[in-house]
Amino acid sequence: MFSGPRDRSRSHHPRDFTHDDARAHHPDLTKLQGWRSMQSEADLPEGRWDEERRWALRMGLTGADSIEDKSIPTFARGELPHYAGINTFLKAPYAEDVTEVKDYDATVLGIPFDGGTTYRPGTRFGPQGLRKISALYTPYNYEMGVDLREQMTLCDAGDVFTIPANIEKSFDQISRAVSHVFSSGSLPIMIGGDHSIGFPCVRGIAECTSKKIGIVHFDRHADIQEKDLDERMHTTPWFHSTNLPNVPAKNLVQVGIGGWQVPREAVKVARERQTNIITMSDIEKLGIDKTVELALELAWDGDDSVYLSFDIDSIDCGFVPGTGWPEPGGFLPREALALASGVAAEGICGMELVEVSPRYDPSDITALMGTRVIVDVLGAMVSNGTLGKHKRHIDRPVTIPHGDFEGKRWSNAT
Questions:
Q1: Listing from the earlier edge strand, what are the strands of the sheet with 187-192?
Q2: What is the pLDDT of residue 24?
């Protein structure tokens, strides 16, 4: 009934096991992700981490004589410490001169706009919220075996200058900013902001290419009616996006839709335009892997690239209270990360993360979840070699003029 005393005199380390002495009820630990990830870390480069520490000493001065770790500067610069510094997303370089985004694989840009909100406002502070909590993360993910700092380049271009009292002018500003980043070859990663920004973001990309764009949209709400409260609000982005000549409605895939907040007006449009809706019940029956496979098949059918839109309220509101339209019954965090990563692994032409409202997020867990979605999407593309796949489709790049100025602002330097 009981096994005998365990033999503690021999090694139980996976590398010392042979096939004969491995117990049948034990898995081969060398085949587990935990073991493989431990080994693969040794193959990751470290050059950019060393570079960052040298940069920090140059920019922030060498530390006090009493500091034993000589990589610590006097002024906080770069990743460390996580509780200090001027926060960009993931402590990435700030591209104050936005003409420099061309030098980076991906560019984060904040879109602080909540003029399309129809219930709880506050998502204009979403970019600040994500940037602040993103300082908690390092660029390395153990399970993926990816180090973003070592394997890609990333910058934060700051926020788009939106116009709080004017939706259409804000849309024009957003499209202009996104088209600039996309035209440069850098992958645009937008942080909202409410979901009305989906339309100008897609429009900004679509005008830079003659190729067709599919959309995978994670949400609890369909967001495809023409107007709401007589304006193009956050319930309308996909109606207007799929009016664009190279964004076919048949390649709009909406994942997680359901609950008591889906207007019938939106359902009628979805039916008329023959879009694709996958509910939470569908996902439960299909499973995560099959859902990803189906979403990709529908979004890529006859298209050249795919845009990823992730509304944080697609996740069950018990995990993400800080949003304008909370709805129970959505994804669990692990499901959301697996779905977003699975779609991104094939390569995307842009991404938005929307509807984080920090005023309803006192512990920052909603902003943290939004941050995690973005870094997992980047990690999936890096690990699958699809980051930069969008560049081949930039056949109508735009050029936006900049003003004339020489010198430094707010400085005595000449």
A1: 154-159, 106-111, 187-192, 350-354, 305-311, 213-218, 252-257, 276-279
A2: 59
